[in-house]
Amino acid sequence: MGKKPALEMRDEIEDAAGAAFDYAPLPGIADEMVDNKGAIRPVWQRFIAHLNAMPESDLAERFARADRYLRDAGVFYRAYGAQGSGERAWPLSHIPVLIDEREWQALSAGLVQRADLLEAMVADIYGENRLVEEGIIPPALIAANPEFQRPLVGVKPATGHYLHFCAFEVGRGPDGNWWVLADRTQAPSGAGFALENRVATTRSFSDIYAETPVHRLASFFGAFRDALQTMKHSGDDRIAVLTPGPANETYYEHAYIARYLGFMLLEGEDLTVVNGRVMVRTVAGLKPIGVLWRRLDSAYADPLELNQNSHIGTPGLVEALRAETVTIVNALGTGVLETRALLAFMPAVCRNLLGEDLRLPSIATWWCGQKEERDHVAASIEKMVIGPAYSRAPFFDDGGESVLGSSLRATAKNSISDWLASDGAKLVGQEVVTLSTTPAWVDGKLAPRPMSLRVFAARTANGWQIMPGGFARIGSGDDAAAIAMQSGGAAADVWIVSDKPVERHTLLPAEGSFTRNMPGSLPSRAADNLFWLGRYIERAEGALRILRAWHARYAEAADPNQPLLADVTEYLAAVDIDTAEPVPESLLRNIDSAVYSASNIRDRFSPDGWLALNDLAKTARRFHTTITSGDDASHAMTILLRKLAGFAGLVHENMYRFTGWRFLSLGRYIERGLHMTRLLGHMSGPEAPDGALDMLLEIGDSVMTHRRRYNVNTARLTVTDLLALDPLNPRSILFQMNEIHREVEQLPNAFFNGQMSPFYREAMRLHSGLAVMTPEAMNGDVYRRLERELEQLSDLLAQTYLG
Fold first, then answer.
1. Quick check: 340 and 367 in contact, CB under 8 A?
2. Is the pTM above the cut of 0.85?
3. Per-residue model confidence as pLDDT tens digits over 471-523
4. How many helices, marked H, and strands, marked E, lie in the chain?
5. Cβ atoms within 10 A of the Cβ of 400, count?
6. Of 509, 749, 760, 803, which has the maximum CB count within 10 A?
7. Nearest in space to 51 (alpha carbons), one of 15, 7, 76, 84
8. Pairing mode of beta strands 97-100, 490-497
């Protein structure tokens, strides 16, 4: 869309102010778009003018464009329910929230003060403990707090700072002022989703975004990345994002942030502590870690000194902190600051530690461990929400643990005082939040929905920097309790709009000289998943090729007891494939295992590859319940093979040839070699039924090659030569051994002190032994020995690199 004359645009804006959107703000509730006089706020006028000029079909296409981007990028969050957990599409609310730059600056100043206050608080809690000693914070809120990590008392961070990355849940009240609803200091999530919201929303409104001076997000992440680089203890140190793993609800974001900033994505099992230093297990040996941006709760980080039941932590991590050899973002134990009850004491703490008043008030909170506060909560129960004192979430995000006073029956209200008297120390009362509303697209029109903002702060070389945006959580109805995405809420982009042009930042280096960085160290766990991804994919392909050949012949004979079909059925049963199922369950398990392996390395996996693999899995599941044996099944196998070939092609053409590629390829070569070795051992012997050799060529995708290379009919020696010993046939065993030999040469430590590693030596021995064989010498015993040796080679690879 080209730029319009100022007069024409002004007329459109004036028309928009009276546009018939049927938008009616809720009575007595502040609205982000419309002021208390019913006029569209200036910051929204240009956007609404554009929106008003669009036909509804155009809007639908724009929204579909954003949804398509999120789907293609694989953006998801993990939802939990009675049926367990599962991945759900990211719920984007397509209309962004627009905030004027000047208002945002005032909000940012308040959040910077709050970040400084939280830093001072946690330093006192794990240091002098003066706040408790002087009675400013009740002792119980610290001593009995499950987030207070006693082993961390007196352990000072190597950088001198406990907090490096914070988030704040903020909302606007009926008076138009901002409140802090919750502090996020444990392992704040959402920054990566804010980036994806921005990309998706700009896909919808690329023309409007280009013409609107909206502050970009890249500079925020660039400044934080640079700050993390300065925290390294030596030039050899690595920076990593520490994730609980794929089962976590925000794992996608962990992988996205690691890929976006160029950091390693690690799990606790990837790390070990040696002589007080945190090391990552890589295929090239142990490498030092200097900075860990943790995304798991403190208690689970070190089972040796914190939660002994943790299976996702690293023993000795606290020891490394004491030795000041690693920086953890944020420091272990900082989750105590998220305690809901502490909101009641923030004004007094701020005056005591900073000598000034809070610029941004917290939501009105009363800790019920004190009589006067208990009495006030009981007397004002109609306006209160009562919830757990040690909860770390605002009431609308605490999983239903809070009780709305106005919803209680009269008999329950009469017993509130008794409840508070007996359990008061574990409870807080909070004033019911009436959040401001923002426009959302509902049933073809704009409708007001309650909103809270999640805003992020990063410690940089120039102090705290506030992300110019964050993301908004939008309610699914009028109820503020439905804001949480687990309750059906959505997320919207936040545009901070200036009245002058804004800088366009990027994380890419400036043009001119550059340094080509070497690919980072490959963690052993990632190599393991890549290796097994290759094996599962090849295992699935081998099964598909055999099943297609079997069903094609079954369609002709209609007799599963025909000698060739019976013989292949017996072979397949030995490898756990049931021909009675058109798409066997074991095939689905192999494909699902490939998806699982890929899910563990999302930071190293392209979105296109991920989509292709998931499409294969969904199609296989659908065929499992819809197709029948014979032609139908044979055709289904062809479709699945094409989809699998599409995935393999994406990987082959697009994956950078670094160490991870070699492990993926080795998995494929070893599995393909095993597949062909077993088939030849079973189907090329003198006892094989008629038609077995032709079927072998078909399974090995070598029918045409055999016709061109051998001027004779199918024979055992020609089939053996082509499928076992031909170095140019990508389906032959020798071809796999050649490729294994070539990849092994490039692996770390293939040579040590001028000598071959045991793994390299064994690969060489297998390769040379097969290379000198003749077709006449290949028999059942040779194939069985070769099968054992290939399996042993796989085990030796695991012992050498994946342990």
1. no
2. yes
3. 999 988 766 544 554 556 799 999 999 999 888 766 655 555 545 555 568 99
4. 27, 22
5. 12
6. 760
7. 15
8. parallel
